[in-house]
Amino acid sequence: MFTKKNINIVCRTIYPSQSPRSNRATYLAIELAKQGYIVKIYSLLGNFNYSEFQKENNLKVINLGKSRLGNGNSD
Question: How far apart are CA 3 and CA 20, in angstroms?
Fold first, then answer.
């Protein structure tokens, strides 16, 4: 019997940012959510509205705030 497991992914940027690392983190989270895991992505988000992205992919996106090491964010 499969019990739902929580998976937390911490990354600097995610969708809509286009870089190899942001794409890898985003698609990993989407695939794990499709397999039935409870997925939360912690990232530097910027001003992009993730409400529709969260609904259609059944995952939770959480903002880490501002980076002290630079201006990186996902928008």
Answer: 31
- Given this model, what pLDDT does residue 31 score? 95
- Mean pLDDT of the residues in the chain: 85
B/e letters for 11-50, b = 16+ CB within 10 Å, e = fewer, are: bbbbbebeeeebeebbebbbebbeeebebbbebbbeeeeb
Element of type H or E holding 39: strand 38-43
In this prediction, residue 72 carries a pLDDT of: 59
Q: What are the residues whose beta carbons fall under 8 Å from the beta carbon of 47, sequence distance 6 or more? A: 75
Q: Which residues contact 4 (CB under 8 A, 6 or more apart)?
A: 36, 37, 38
User: Strands across the sheet with 60-63, in order?
Assistant: 6-10, 38-43, 60-63
Greater confidence (44 vs 54) lies with: 54
